[in-house]
Amino acid sequence: GLLDEAAFTQDETRLLTTARDATIKIWELPSGREILSIPSQGDSYVQLSLAPDDSRLVTVSRRNELAVRQ
Fold first, then answer.
1. How far apart are CA 52 and CA 38, in angstroms?
2. Are 50 and 16 in contact (CB under 8 A)?
3. Torsion sign across C-alpha atoms 59, 45, 10, 25
4. pLDDT at position 5, please?
5. What is the pLDDT of residue 1?
6. How far apart are CA 14 and CA 68, in angstroms?
7. Which residues contact 5 (CB under 8 A, 6 or more apart)?
8. Which of 32, 46, 62, 65 is least buried, going by the fewest C-beta atoms within 10 A?
9. End-to-end CA distance of the chain
10. What integer pLDDT is reported at residue 63 of this predicted model?
11. What would the 3-class secondary structure string for the chain be?
12. What is the mean pLDDT of each run of 10 residues along the chain (70 residues)?
């Protein structure tokens, strides 16, 4: 699906994306291999941000619901 947001980890070995198919995906770089797909609880994500130490992921849904994942 179409991407809404993307963020690199600090070491740039992974890329996290949000898409209109209501998933967060984690990609290994530089291979481009998908490592993990996290489905939404019903609404797609429009923003994501990683903590400076990559320990937490913050997402915002289209309904303005904020979630913090470790």
1. 21
2. yes
3. positive
4. 86
5. 62
6. 18
7. 17, 18, 45, 46, 47, 48
8. 32
9. 25
10. 85
11. CCEEEEEECCCCCEEEEEECCCEEEEEECCCCCEEEEEECCCCCEEEEEECCCCCCEEEEECCCCEEEEC
12. 85 91 91 91 81 90 85
At 27 the pLDDT is 96
Q: Which two tokens stand for residue 67?
A: 């979630």
- Token digits of residue 38: 């996290």
Question: And the tokens for 62?
Answer: 């289209």
For residue 68 the two structure tokens come to: 């913090």
Token readout for 1 is 């699906």
Question: Hunting for tokens 């849904």 — which residue is that?
Answer: 61
